[in-house]
Amino acid sequence: MYYLDHAATTPLHPEVISVMIKYLQTDYGNPSSKYYPQAMSASSALKESRKCVADLLNCDPEFILFTSGSTESNNFVLKGVVEKYRNKGNHIITSKIEHKSIIETCRHLERLGTKVSYLSVNSEGHIDLNELISLINESTLMVSLMWGNNEIGVVNDVEQISRICHERGVLFHTDATQVVGKIEIDLKKTSLDFLSISAHKIGGPKGVGAVFVGPDDLGLRRRIPSLMDGGDQEYKMRSGTQGMHNIVGFAKACEMAKANLKENNMRLLQLEKKFKEILVSKCPGVKFNGDQINKIPGLLSISIPGINNELLCKQISNQIAISTGSACSIGEKSHVLEALDLADSTSTIRVSLPADLDNVEEVASILLPYISLS
Ligand code: PMP
């Protein structure tokens, strides 16, 4: 069985599982407690874990807050910025192809009076930077644009976008959930204000992630209101006892993602190239959606004339696990493919490869009878 839905989630890495067990079985203390060994171990693991996440992003650990994942990180940033800076403005800019945790949060904020502009994308999945510039006005608080898209894999030029925002005094947030561990993220080079990531896309556990909250203009900690009222955890910005088993698992996944980044990136590019070559040679009319150069390695949105994507996914599900698109929007029409103006989104599948896939030829040979007969 080939699991090729790594953009939806990834299997837990065995090394991740083994570090998690200790914090479930013996070192179960509350990291905010003191005095006794279980708590001291949890507290030092929290510190160490924050450093591991920060190392992967090349930022200072004190700017990392643990959350339950990217959905929460995205909600926290958007809702928090609107609340904190409501005297400065009430306008946010995002795009039509963001993840639902951005789009639906924006809809929520709109119902409460925030103005939101949704940038269109071209057929490659890119926004128009001039449109972005023209939409920024005195009441614009923040621009939120994803680093890499979860359905088509297109990668934004976040460095340039961030520069455009900062030159105009506007904050910049990026949802980096899909690019982390796939392409280099260096927050010392790319100066941005907020970034969201999730553990389960890089071999870590589900239900844990982080948000980078960069310093303010004076270099001081930026204080964003907590989504939940309660204790003082996570620099008073995310109340609730930290799930240490998840956090140490996330940290181990980050450590491994950093160590294997270059090799995984190269391997994914090779696998993707081979897979595309086979499909193109054997399946006339096959089309790969979105920019095929500035993209997340290993993530492919493939349109195959004549197929029904749901039927295909079911037919091959005993041999290959793939999806029609985002797991967070299953059964719905894809807003991403719609924004790309793709004529027939029901003939589109998403394949997201693992770097350790050993036989891409066999995967193609299982798939081909289903897609070339139709
Ligand atoms: N943003 C993007 C781009 C994603 O792909 C996902 C996961 N599908 C999320 C946010 C939500 O992440 P989580 O599952 O950790 O809440």
Structural notes for this entry:
The radius of gyration is 21 Å and the shape is globular. With 374 residues, the protein is of the alpha/beta class. It has helices spanning 14-25, 37-57, 70-84, 100-111, 129-135, 158-167, 233-236, 244-282, 309-315, 335-339, 360-372, and strands at residues 2-3, 64-67, 91-95, 115-119, 140-144, 171-175, 194-198, 209-213, 287-288, 299-303, 320-321, 348-352. The model has no long low-confidence stretch (mean pLDDT 95). The protein contains eleven helices and twelve strands. It starts with a strand and ends with a helix. Helix content is 39%, strand content 13%. The strands form three sheets. It has a seven-stranded mixed beta sheet with strand order 2-8-7-6-5-3-4, sandwiched between helices. The protein has a three-stranded antiparallel beta sheet with strand order 9-10-12, with helices on one face. Helix 2 runs parallel beside helix 8 (244-282). Strand 5 (140-144), helix 6 and strand 6 (171-175) form a beta-alpha-beta unit. 4'-deoxy-4'-aminopyridoxal-5'-phosphate is lined by residues 69-71, 99, 101, 146, 150, 175, 177-178, 198, 209, 327-328. Residues 69-71, 99, 101, 146, 150, 175, 177-178, 198, 209, 327-328 line the site of 4'-deoxy-4'-aminopyridoxal-5'-phosphate (PMP).
